[in-house]
């Protein structure tokens, strides 16, 4: 059981930019390195600030025989409906859907997806999403030959305090590791 950790963007591709924490590319690389320390035997698909396309990332995941890739991203824009963490799986399967749901339940309360008005509704998390504005996320998900779950850690403009908090980051990494262990079995 091998987990691939894919910090999105990097190199010339900076991702989104938020005043409070800078580039998405830098942010998810730091988070990916923390997650790497928490998940035994996991593989970082992008280790440095380098330009990498999705084919290269999939090649590294394949050569390391990854069973699941967790792709880390952040939203720049202020969530108009949601804030907090969202997981995407497309087209998804039972395991990736279960993993996304589990991460949403186990993640630190500061990052639990909530509608902006604070009222929790039945389905705060978007998964197996088909909306056109998620085309970019889908293109990431399609490029991997193994299971892949894309995690958008939060909306930078509203969630930056929680996203930058090292304690919250650590608890998020523990939650991701625990959820993967539950759904995919223990890591080697
Ligand atoms: Zn991104």
Protein model, in words:
- The chain is of the alpha/beta class.
- The chain has one domain: 3-Layer(aba) Sandwich (Aminopeptidase), CATH 3.40.630.
- The protein has 6 helices and 9 strands.
- The strands form 3 sheets. Strands 4-1-5-9-7 form a 5-stranded mixed β-sheet, sandwiched between helices. The protein has a two-stranded antiparallel sheet with strand order 2-3.
- It is globular.
- The N and C termini lie close together (6 Å).
- Bound molecules: zinc ion.
- The site of zinc ion has 5 residues, from loops.
- The site of zinc ion (ZN) has 5 residues, from loops.
Please tell me the CATH architecture by its name: 3-Layer(aba) Sandwich
CATH superfamily: Zn-dependent exopeptidases
Summarize the main sheet. 5 strands, mixed
The number of helical segments is 6
Q: Write down the secondary-structure element order.
A: EEEHEHEEEHEHEHH
What is the count of distinct domains? 1
Structural class comes to alpha/beta
Q: Strand sequence of the main sheet, in spatial order?
A: 4-1-5-9-7
Can you tell me the CATH class? Alpha Beta
Distance between the termini: 6 Å
CATH fold description? Aminopeptidase
């Amino acid at each position: 059981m091998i987990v691939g950790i894919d910090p999105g963007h990097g190199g010339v591709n900076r991702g989104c930019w938020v005043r409070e924490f800078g580039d998405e590319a830098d942010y998810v690389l730091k988070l990916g390195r923390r997650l790497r320390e928490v998940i035994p035997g996991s593989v970082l698909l992008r280790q440095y600030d380098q330009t990498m396309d999705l084919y290269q990332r999939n090649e590294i995941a394949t050569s390391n025989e990854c069973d699941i890739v967790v792709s880390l991203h952040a939203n720049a824009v202020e969530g108009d409906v949601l804030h907090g963490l969202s997981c995407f799986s497309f087209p998804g399967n039972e395991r990736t859907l279960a993993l996304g749901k589990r991460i949403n339940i186990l993640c630190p309360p500061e990052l639990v997806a909530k509608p902006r008005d604070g009222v929790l509704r039945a389905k705060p998390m978007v998964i197996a999403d088909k909306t056109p504005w998620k085309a970019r996320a889908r293109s990431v998900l399609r490029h991997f030959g193994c299971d892949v779950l894309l995690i958008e850690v939060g909306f930078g403009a509203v969630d930056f305090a929680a996203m930058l908090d090292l304690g919250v980051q650590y608890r998020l990494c523990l939650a991701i590791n625990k959820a993967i262990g539950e759904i995919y079995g223990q890591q080697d």
